[in-house]
Amino acid sequence: MEPLMQENRVFNPPADFIKGATISGMEAYNKLCSEAEADYDGFWGRLARENIFWKKPFTKVLDESKAPFYKWFEDGTTNASYNCLDRQIENGLGNKTALIFEADDGSVTNVSYQELLGRVNQFANALRKMGIKSGDRVIIYMAMTIEGIVAMHACARIGAIHSVVFGGFSAQALRDRIVDVGAVAVITADGQFRGGKSLPLKAICDEALSTGECPNVKHVIVNKRTGSEVTMTPGRDVWMQEIAANESTVCEPEWVSAEHPLFILYTSGSTGKPKGVQHSTGGYLLWAILTMKWTFDIKPNDVFWCTADIGWVTGHSYITYGPLAVGATEIVFEGVPTYPNAGRFWDMIQKHKATIFYTAPTAIRSLIKASSNDQAIHPKSYDLSSLRLLGSVGEPINPEAWMWYYENVGGSRCPIADTFWQTETGGHMISPLPGATPMVPGSCTLPLPGIMAAIVDEAGVDVANGNGGILVVKRPWPSMIRTIWGDPDRFIKSYFPEELGGTLYLAGDGAIRHKDTGYFTITGRIDDVLNVSGHRMGTMEIESCLVANPLVAEAAVVGRPDELTGEAICVFVVLKGGRPTGEEAKKVATELRNWVGKEIGPIAKPKDVRFGDNLPKTRSGKIMRRLLRVIAKGEEITQDTSTLENPAILEQLKESV
Ligand code: PRX
């Protein structure tokens, strides 16, 4: 945190960017902020009327009567897919390219708005014919394909609530989500291409459905992507292409209340199983649109590229919905940044003349490393002059990575939007506006207009600038989480805790504001959530997974800083059969890593494994995680260990396998 707060390099947006920007200059930013402060309902009401097609206009902006279950634009009706597709065609963009799809093998398919609408409608009609209706939950377990986007829009079209599960999650993780959400159907693919390999999806889906715990799933719809062999269960499984082929390209959208859930997306919390974050239709879409316009300054000629996966919220807001809702052309990429080599991103920017590029610090850091001794794949070896704006998301970006990105990718010409937000917030919360905000590397700068972000102490009282504290949002905003699916109490406890007074939204991050500028710098999670390569992971989730292994008696999981992945997962394990050493320890460590990979997914595999005869505990039996964090970092323990029941354990745990 220290070096960041001392960061005093300031980068002003270029004058010509400011001139053409949607929010042009700090006066324009301040004006919008003042408008929100003076008349909150009026501000959001105006924007919602200007930016969304309402089948039936709303009469009330914000209903706080059942806070914190806020309702926005509730009596208005609309449809997300209609706003993204039909509306563009009505505006004369039917022939405009909506998607530039680049497959793993480099082949490119362009899809116009008209074609995309046709495909969405055919599939939506097929889903309706199967009996899937408004309010039903549909799991989407697919990779980055045109069909993945079609599937999400087809659900939205008929009012079915989609829940996308990242294609890297295991059968067990998929099953948990199918059960929790009560899905009636699963849309998947035979497999996926990634980095030149063909990986299964349908087989994992079959495994998820094999235990009889998902009796509600009546249909499995399979996109033919890799052509690999799959087992089709008669009466349950159908091919996506076959059921859509003969359907009409016209499909009347389901007009839903603005509060109708558009999707549920699972994310890790500090305790228990992943939470199903429920988002609305109207408020969510409004913020996806506004942040495309404000943060990304989107213009008709832009070629927008967000490198996220539709399995994460970034893919929802800035691939599936946001770019299409503003009529943009966007790149959709199936593959990985390192295949066929680590110049893939730069090659694609050059090839498609991308103008806006949005990626994660972890990708930037790994590409810095890869290109440090290979000039051929260094961004300087490509023509990246089409770029005019860069973005960063998912984790704090360290100033060194920021500078590299700014100079080598952006040619010291493109502003960087370091966007702080979360699955729960639906869209950007704190970010520089590219045509207004002077940038400081490593700081996400200032809240977007209408977002009342603040820093408070543990009693919920504002802290003065220059002091660290807890990041909160003081007023509800349209795209905020509506509830945790099936667990409203957990929603209140997680996000509106009584300790803070019950009205502040608790983000779960620590932050500090610069004493002069008021700029925000995020200092990291304050709960037991880790951020590994921009992926959120609950330590408890990994602990429960480890103790479910027959060899394990007890386990504790903490994070430690990692140059490449931001944080790395470190596990401390007590085996039932005693502490292993030497080759045996290595063997068990590998076994446990694979176990976690299989139970949760490869992204949750621990980096360090340490074995002890016990874990450091207080006399009352509480695991002292702060000591484990010190050990994980490889630092000497200087803290008081007098409350520790078994200090000798610490020596054992220093040894990482
Ligand atoms: O800790 C913050 C970090 O990622 C968390 C949210 O993770 P998730 O819900 O998976 O959403 C990621 C994509 C929006 C936050 O609580 N985070 C996200 N963006 C930033 C960030 N930390 C610092 N700077 C950011 N720009």
Automatic annotation (TrEMBL):
Residues 541-622 form the AMP-binding enzyme C-terminal domain. Residues 93-477 form the AMP-dependent synthetase/ligase domain. GO terms for biological process: acetyl-CoA biosynthetic process from acetate. Its EC number is 6.2.1.1. SUPFAM superfamilies: Acetyl-CoA synthetase-like. It catalyses: acetate + ATP + CoA = acetyl-CoA + AMP + diphosphate. Catalyzes the conversion of acetate into acetyl-CoA (AcCoA), an essential intermediate at the junction of anabolic and catabolic pathways. AcsA undergoes a two-step reaction. In the first half reaction, AcsA combines acetate with ATP to form acetyl-adenylate (AcAMP) intermediate. In the second half reaction, it can then transfer the acetyl group from AcAMP to the sulfhydryl group of CoA, forming the product AcCoA. This is Acetyl-coenzyme A synthetase. The gene is acs.
